[in-house]
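Q: Convert this sequence to structure tokens.
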Amino acid sequence: MVARSWPGVRPEFSRYLTVPSTASCDPSGSSHQWHLLDNLPALEAREAAPAGTILAVHGNPTWSYLWRSVLEAGAEAETPWRVVAVDQLDMGYSDRTDIFRRLADRVTDLGDLTDALGLEGPVVTLGHDWGGIISLGWATRHREQLAGIVLTNTAVHPSGFALPPALSLALHPAVHGWGTRITPAFLKVTHALAHPSLPSDVECAFMAPYRTAPARAGVANFVADIPATPQHPSWPTLDQISTEIRTLEVPALMMWGPRDPIFSDRYLRDLMYRLPQADVHRFEGAGHLLAEDRDIATPLLAWLSSTVHQRSEIKSALQDDAPSRANVGSDGGPRDRDLATGFRSMLAELDAHRDDHADAVVDMGPAGEGVRSSTSLSWASLVRRVDAIAHGLSELGVRRGDRVNLLVPPSAELTSLIYACLRLEAIIVVADAGLGTKSLGRAIRGAGPGYLIGIERALMAAKALKWPGQRISAGDLSPAKRRLLGVVATVGDLEKSGMGSIAAGAPPFVAADPDTDAAILFTSGSTGPAKGVVYTHRQLAAMRDTLQATYGLKSGDALVAGFAPFALLGPALGAVSVTPDMDVTSPRTLSASALADAAAAINATIVFASPAALVNVLATSTELDSIQRAALERVDLLLSAGAPLGTTLLQQVQDLAPQAEVHTPYGMTEALPITDISLQGILAAGSGDGVCVGQPVAGAQVSIAALDDQGGVSDELDASPGQVGEIVVSAPHVKDRYDRLWVTEHASAVHPGWHHTGDVGHLDTAGRLWVQGRLGHIITTAAGVRTPVAAELAAEAVRGIRRAAVVGVGPAGTQAVVVIVETVQRTRRSALAAQALTQDVRSSITRATGMTAAAVVVIPDLPTDIRHNSKIDRSALSKWAAELLSGKKATLQ
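A:
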């Protein structure tokens, strides 16, 4: 038969093979003609020996065309892989057998084909949709050949789940025949699930094998064979495969499109339970047709190289290697464990103060009529409450390793819940409400918590938006509201129950394993979708120890936590902590009075605050009275963490707290802090290319991965002065991994023990780090690579300019430099700057950096990230500026 040609597929990949059948549904002696796409001809042409074979199995109603990117990538890779993408019988261009083939038959069919091909291994299965369970069925029957498992959106068992509405509809007797066979409706609906929409030629290729009703018989039968109930003929096979895959100890990778109305994240969580060794990557924004929505071939081959291919003796590895923890990192194996050396629990200080009746946690809040008020917990009360809640959670069913999402503002309540989870070894999931409802929901669904503890507003959102997790209310609710919101308990219930257990002699919890997961903290979302960052108990403790060693913190210090990430560290430091009266989701709501009142409440010696918060503190400082000013004058240490704050503003902060050492630590959610510098250090460093963020803190190392002329990053690390490139850091408190983001983790941990930050900068001769921008914000001009920060600082030095952003516009390699400014006297609309202002900005930037600005644009407000309200969104500005300067109607999202 003549090979066909489809977009993106080499004609020589298409082949046919007649295969004897051993399926019980076929008469004895039957054989069928299979169509498959096989990249072996390309490998033979380059005389390349493949590392193994990827056996790719499509679902319904696609065909082997789904895997065209994997076929091509496997053929061209430095370490090549043979890819055999099959058309299942009655599907694609394989034979129409006119026989109803059940799940067991299809698993047998696939084995018949691989026998005919003579595949000996190593074989890595790749499945999608119903091809996922068929590929897993093959895997359980071919263990000697099996080297790995890769799955995209699929499911193995609906037990406990209602069938997805789309499949329920397709199975309905009134719809099934018409929608799946008589008309192409089922195909069209499936194709419409692509994000973005399929190109017309690609959609035509997917439709091509199914143009007539007889050609769609397999599509209809596939739907009819969905084992939705135990009474279905295919249920026993489904049940057997679902059980047996738990005994497969080969490496596994799950790549998932969360925007899937059919196989949602609950099916991913079920698969993770059955294959606990699996690495996982969720591609935010992608859906059911993941292979069409995203490049899966590149990460798939990277994963194969870092896991399967690196095992020199596959069979020995399968027999001897224990499964690793999910998403352990780029090496594919568990981290080394040292359970004793240098580890002091996050709960150590709390336990040491068990009989201390001094204040431990203080919450500030308005009491009305201008009266200042606060609520507090003593150390002894906090310990009792933590222990009681931990026991209450345990009685509710929370176990070690369970994920508990905390949607409670920084407060004594949140502190109690955090340390109760740490006591129990439950994993706290903290996503800032400042992310916004959409991004917050995406983060929660990604983390997949088993329990969700929240204030009433959060519980309402959880109910309406179907966020995962059993719901626990942080406050008391009426019985009617409890039923309405699906609340299984309140924190008060847990505390009361736990107190009873303690009184009855419940044994204390055992000490946490330092290398088990402790927390998942989400990034701000300023550089893409918020990412879950996993910390172990050891890494959280190392963060505490680094702060202590860097700033000389000690038990008994009193700190104001105006920066949410530090709210959880107070008890671990042995410090009394106070949360100011502010909306923590909006740092700019921290006023000078609120900060001073918080400091006065505990005689604070330390203040942690974000730059956006401090900007508003300065703006409202004229409202301070003499008592409030005196409280700020007693502060010894003030940390501005989150983003750089200009020297002028830092000096104004110093005026408010004249006795304080003002420091600006540099770090990120993945590692905080990494470097530190004082105001005096900033003044001594002077001006330079970027923002000086100081020298590495205790235990941290900084190196640079150099940039090439196109903005690419070198594989080599170099700490030489003046070398510009991506900032790469190492420290005991660097994250363990990104949660369910294997691709992101692999890219960030190219060098074991080091984290690629995505920031660009250089080290100077004094060992100080200068940050010059983000990798995604570098400008590739005809004269070479340029970074934005030094130019922005030069623009902000011009009279009348409040803030500036420098972006590249145009094709990579020939980008023009565009300066976008927010003026002190706010403009009403965006437009090209006046000639005088343009000239001043251009001159200042050229003197400081040698760069030439092609245009200067004024804008009412520069867009900032949604959490800190301080980091400028240069990516959005670059797109907007390109549209504005081309004469199009430009709108900032």
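The chain has a mean pLDDT of 90.
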